């Protein structure tokens, strides 16, 4: 019997011992520092309100009390990515009491296991401003409204995190939007402002002026006047222009370096200027001339045009000269482009511009192109257009997309037959004192006198300048001279020769008379009827 009772006592004790051992092993794992870190980081990765997910794990480092939602309302807690979670796990494993957050034992569980929590050091921040009646914000959450020009408010027991203090409101009708980030060292966030007036200029001519993240206004014609504006000396001024393909910013300048009345140039670097754009424009027309002279595209066409010979603007240039140089029945002998002018340059993208231009084509025609009349001269075309320039490495190309056009706006035909008479004579003229009589002078020397009932025609081979705008006709002995005068001339032993006087916008018929055996005295012309241009 004694032996039997001893066995009954031993078996329950063994079971209890095993259970206690299992409990100790389980508790040592479940309440370990490593496991608490794992659970805390896992909570940080859950969806929903991040602070609600982690607040059961966090306490204040100085008093071990739980961090409340109200105390953490200004801090921003965001769901962690996998990489961020791994980094936080490692940081907490290595962290000690000198760090902003670390694992701390705050008591016991079941008398034998440590109660670990994530300890957060409390932070006190003071926000100061000298602007009255503006909202004081921390991380965009309203803290208070300033009530004096020497106002400060202190926020106690904040979790150490990223904080940005700001003020928002108006001063003398001007918007005040200033901010300052907590740098991890200085607990005073001073949002005091100074008031300055100065001028800003920029090559981003219609960009927006910024003081840090605050947009102050939009430049007009590259200028903006800042007048009695509330500023923080720590802020920096710059100009930004927004484009569909990105933003372009000027260099920045600290407001502390700007004095009242200054003019500050905030220019962006690397912008396309008119001189460079003009060179690209001229090079584009040069490629057209190279094509015309060689009968094929130049080997350097891709250095000027995006996509080389497949560039649509380049094709348009070649088409603009096709008719007169290749397909017209009378083809021009040569082409020059004596005038190319950049009329405007507008930035339309971060690295692209639209250039407006005018140009002049001079198509020359020599006599070999007109075997019948032997005419020669030039046809002058004026053109206007647009093209898009885009940056490519360190240079600019004519883009194969964007705005492009080329249009003929005018044409001046200066082709003429070589005239044997002064140009001022050419055309049809009526006789002032004989309304039914007119004279027509043609470039080839033909002179036609027309009356109501009759027409007489003759031809001279040239004219001789006798001075005082008087010209003597040169003609053969068999020439019908009756066409030179309005009425017949007569006399015995005399002879006549004929000419014309250009008298301003009038013509005067001229006759010289001499004895049959004498030479003509061309200094003594006899002026006849006056002619007016029809």
UniProtKB/TrEMBL annotation:
<feature type="domain" description="TcaA 4th">
    <location>
        <begin position="196"/>
        <end position="266"/>
    </location>
</feature>
<keyword id="KW-0472">Membrane</keyword>
<feature type="transmembrane region" description="Helical">
    <location>
        <begin position="9"/>
        <end position="29"/>
    </location>
</feature>
<dbReference type="InterPro" id="IPR054530">
    <property type="entry name" value="TcaA_4th"/>
</dbReference>
<protein>
    <recommendedName>
        <fullName>TcaA 4th domain-containing protein</fullName>
    </recommendedName>
</protein>
<keyword id="KW-0812">Transmembrane</keyword>
<dbReference type="Pfam" id="PF22820">
    <property type="entry name" value="TcaA_3rd_4th"/>
</dbReference>
<keyword id="KW-1133">Transmembrane helix</keyword>
């Amino acid at each position: 019997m004694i032996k039997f009772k001893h066995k009954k006592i031993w078996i329950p004790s063994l079971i209890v011992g095993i259970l206690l051992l299992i409990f100790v092993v389980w508790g040592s794992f479940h309440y370990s520092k490593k496991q608490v870190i794992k659970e805390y980081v896992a909570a940080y990765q859950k969806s929903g309100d991040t602070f609600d997910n982690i607040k059961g794990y966090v306490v204040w480092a100085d008093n071990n009390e739980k961090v409340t939602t109200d105390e953490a309302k200004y801090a921003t807690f965001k769901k962690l990515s996998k990489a961020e979670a791994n980094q936080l796990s490692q940081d907490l494993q290595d962290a000690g009491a000198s760090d902003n957050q670390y694992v701390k034992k705050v008591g016991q569980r079941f008398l034998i296991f440590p109660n670990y929590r994530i300890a957060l050091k409390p932070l006190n921040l003071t926000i100061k401003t000298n602007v009255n009646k503006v909202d004081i914000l921390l991380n965009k959450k309203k803290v208070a409204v300033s009530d004096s020009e020497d106002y400060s408010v202190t926020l106690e027991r904040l979790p150490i995190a990223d904080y940005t203090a700001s003020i928002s409101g108006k001063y003398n009708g001007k918007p005040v939007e200033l901010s300052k980030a907590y740098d991890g060292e200085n607990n005073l966030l001073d949002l005091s402002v100074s008031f300055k007036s100065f001028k800003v200029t920029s090559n981003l001519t219609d960009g927006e002026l910024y003081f840090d993240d605050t947009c102050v206004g939009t430049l007009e014609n590259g200028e903006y006047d800042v007048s009695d504006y509330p500023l923080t000396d720590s802020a920096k001024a710059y100009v930004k222009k927004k484009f569909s393909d990105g933003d372009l910013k000027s260099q920045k300048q600290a407001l502390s370096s700007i004095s009242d009345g200054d003019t500050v140039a905030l220019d962006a670097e690397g912008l396309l200027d008119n001189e460079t754009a003009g060179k690209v424009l001229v090079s584009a027309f040069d490629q057209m001339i190279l094509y015309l002279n060689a009968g094929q595209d130049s080997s350097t066409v891709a250095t000027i045009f995006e996509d080389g010979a497949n560039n649509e603007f380049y094709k348009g240039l070649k088409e603009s000269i096709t008719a007169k140089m290749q397909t017209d029945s009378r083809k021009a002998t040569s082409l020059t482009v004596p005038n190319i002018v950049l009329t405007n340059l507008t930035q339309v993208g971060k690295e692209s511009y639209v250039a407006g231009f005018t140009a002049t084509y001079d198509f020359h025609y020599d006599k070999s192109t007109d075997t019948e009349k032997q005419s020669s001269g030039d046809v002058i075309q004026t053109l206007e257009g647009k093209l898009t320039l885009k940056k490519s490495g360190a240079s600019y190309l004519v883009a194969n997309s964007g705005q492009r056009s080329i249009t003929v706006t005018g044409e001046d035909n200066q082709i003429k037959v070589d005239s044997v008479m002064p140009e001022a004579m050419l055309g049809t003229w009526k006789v002032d004192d004989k309304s039914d009589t007119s004279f027509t002078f043609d470039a080839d020397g033909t002179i036609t006198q027309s009356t109501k009932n009759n027409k007489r025609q003759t031809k001279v081979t040239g004219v001789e300048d006798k001075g005082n705008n008087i010209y003597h006709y040169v003609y053969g002995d068999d020439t019908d001279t009756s066409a030179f005068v309005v009425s017949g001339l007569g006399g015995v032993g005399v002879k006549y020769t004929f000419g014309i006087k250009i008298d301003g916008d009038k013509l005067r018929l001229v006759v010289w008379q001499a004895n049959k055996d004498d030479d003509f005295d061309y200094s003594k012309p006899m002026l006849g009827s006056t002619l007016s241009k029809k």
